[in-house]
Amino acid sequence: MTTPWNLRYAQRMRGIGSSIIRELLKLTEKPGLISFAGGLPAPDVFPIKQFEEAAARILKDNGPQALQYSATEGYLPLRTLIAEKMNRYGIHATPNNILITTGAQQALDIIGKVMIDPGDKILTESPTYLGALQAWRTYQAEFVTVPVDADGICVDKRLEEALRAGPKFMYILPNFQNPAGVTLSMERRQKLVQIADHYGIPIVEDDPYGDLRFEGEHLPPLLVLDAQLQANRRGNVNGNNFTLGDVMYLGTFSKTLAPGLRLGWIAAPEDVLKRCVMAKQGADLHTSTFNQMLAYEVAKDGFIDEHKQVIRRVYKERRDVMLTAMEEYFPANTHWTHPQGGLFLWVTFPEEVDTAVLLKKAIDNDVAFVPGFAFFPEGNVGHNTGRFNFSNATPEQIELGIQRLGKVLHEELAHLEPEVEYA
Amino acid sequence: MTTPWNLRYAQRMRGIGSSIIRELLKLTEKPGLISFAGGLPAPDVFPIKQFEEAAARILKDNGPQALQYSATEGYLPLRTLIAEKMNRYGIHATPNNILITTGAQQALDIIGKVMIDPGDKILTESPTYLGALQAWRTYQAEFVTVPVDADGICVDKRLEEALRAGPKFMYILPNFQNPAGVTLSMERRQKLVQIADHYGIPIVEDDPYGDLRFEGEHLPPLLVLDAQLQANRRGNVNGNNFTLGDVMYLGTFSKTLAPGLRLGWIAAPEDVLKRCVMAKQGADLHTSTFNQMLAYEVAKDGFIDEHKQVIRRVYKERRDVMLTAMEEYFPANTHWTHPQGGLFLWVTFPEEVDTAVLLKKAIDNDVAFVPGFAFFPEGNVGHNTGRFNFSNATPEQIELGIQRLGKVLHEELAHLEPEVEYA
């Protein structure tokens, strides 16, 4: 049907088709299908009882406040809690450095609105989080990319070359990156903030999974390393009063509490945070008052520190089951990353596999994953890669799903080989 | 503090200062101050008990679903409920015509993103809702305006002249308009959809208060009148299968249930709705699953139809108290609108009063309202006008607050008069 709307879309929407991923994922809604395609946390670990108690208490004691409009910046006790958590690292953050957002996805949208002019280049990892590309494409961003390997983004000549293209900022997921599951090494973190400082290019650090490390040692956020760098330069080598500078840090309660509440945050210097507040005011006035109070009530007495132990245990088990099953069922010349935390791992299949084609056959066999090509901003690469989520399915489903996919893969490769013979 | 961010803001943020209103409203946080400045519903009528029961039931029966990620389009039972409500008017809407948004403010932001190119003209009422201006200024919209009088936007030569400026769409609040409190008459509604159709300019109909009519008869939304017009043209004169066409309709649960949940919706033809879904996906993935389920649980058995009777009774009483108090305490040559519903009325003070100056004195005397100038997109008008909210304060506070302001006004006018004598 033609309506006056169809003829009037803004130019920025031209590049925004219905994503292929989105269309593919619709096919995964088939009953009995085991999906590694989504990015869903394990619902088994949601702290439902804590939310039940908190909801009852809030509505009983502070119902009118919880259901009323509230400040764009967010619920002050929650902002204070977040600032205090950052202060554990020695960062000098106050609630004035924290804006509560409707999920970290909104943080990406707000940053796009505040920072990106049409045609601006954004430096991203390759592959990178699809939601950031989607948010920033509507602001007509272009992307310059630097590959990731097992130690995260390659902090070498390729990074410097990309920086000389003059990006507005860098977008980095340092921990258990979505989609590749890799973690930026300590050495590269140090080097990255030095190079960023040298070129004067700020960093958006997106850290949804940082708390979900189940192997290896916690590494400091880029935010902290940058603050140390700035403090050292000013001669404040003791460094217990770092201020926020070149790094905006994005956090979320989606992975430590529950994504259905849509609660994330931006930590940033006050000046840029004020701009973000203005942009958010026009975007949705404020994030749900009730949900902010819920998260605060559940989190306030250190619950997340306890609860993340449970999540880590569950996710580690599932990752291990997936790694073992891949070892057993996947054909030779298939490689995958070994995530130390988070929700995803990344598979590179033999060169002759096209994962978009593979996915269709996989769905016919009741298993699904996400083809990797969509995560590369530059396009036309990664045809033989795929992202696998290990947090949402049970260990039994993971074993069975990887077995199913292994069978499809072996058939696919057997089918491909004769063609080579006849050639 | 200078950071690399300050030097890098997008051009679209240049026009976006911290709003004067926002700065003024900070002053109203003084204890003991009676504020008519905000746009807050009466917290006394929030259905807290219903939310308590619904929250407990949802978390007990469907906790994992309520706390998990969900579809960008929104919770299907809630979208179905909204579509069914529209179908009562004979509109042929399905859940595919409904997108749940994070408050109706997000609907405005999404429409801006999908429709507005930099420099596009948007036709608005004058005065109009500040949040729409704020949302659309970040998309670098310009505004062409048509005045409102007691019967809503003036559907006459001035409208046609503004339409010939080629606006992308018209933005109309037909019921108890924010800020003026006026309602578009039936005759003008008919004429408006005809003229819109004639010029081919679509309408964004924002109807947050439509359910809160406490006087006079319900008038059909522009959406319905437009659908009738389209159906008549196609010869479907019985009109019980209207489709959506030239009007996007925005609704909200903020005024009928609670604003703290941030739940609104867009009703639109499928094609444009799909674009809105894509824009929303980048903006916040989806609206809080838990809150959508809460609203559905509370609303599903016709609760809103009951509950709005309570709200209407409370708001009517408060409006009446405000009208009576203004009659008693305000000086001669002060005029105000007589809203038949909603939350606001609009005051025009004598020409020599500057409400920005008046507000400062009012705050010193523990009463506040919003100066009207900010609601005029064209600027430099309305210096002697103001918006008064009557839903949030109790009847006793309203009486006392208007009395306080009356005293300030009389003093102000007495102070202004001698200057004229000495001139």
**Which stretches of chain A of 5+ consecutive residues score pLDDT under 50?**
none
- Mean pLDDT of chain A, rounded to whole units? 93
Q: Return the CATH topology of the largest domain in chain A.
A: Aspartate Aminotransferase, domain 2
Q: Greatest interface and its residue counts?
A: A-B, 93 and 92 residues
At the first level of CATH, the class of the largest domain in chain A is Alpha Beta
The major sheet of chain A is characterized as: 8 strands, mixed
Characterization of this structure:
With 423 residues, chain A is of the alpha/beta class. Chain A has two domains: 6-46 and 305-422, Aspartate Aminotransferase, domain 1 (Alpha-Beta Complex); 69-303, Aspartate Aminotransferase, domain 2, CATH 3.40.640.10. Chain A has 13 helices and 14 strands. In chain A, the strands form three sheets. An eight-stranded mixed beta sheet of chain A has the order 2-9-8-7-6-3-4-5, sandwiched between helices. A four-stranded antiparallel beta sheet of chain A has the order 10-11-14-13. The first copy, chain A, has a two-stranded parallel sheet with strand order 1-12. In chain A, α7 links the parallel β6 (169-172) and β7 (203-206). In chain A, α2 (48-67) packs across α10 (289-299). The longest helix of chain A is centred in the C-terminal third of the chain and has 28 residues, at 395-422. Chain A starts with 19 loop residues before the first helix and ends with a helix. Chains A and B meet through α2, α4, α5, α9 and α10 of A and α2, α4, α5, α9 and α10 of B.
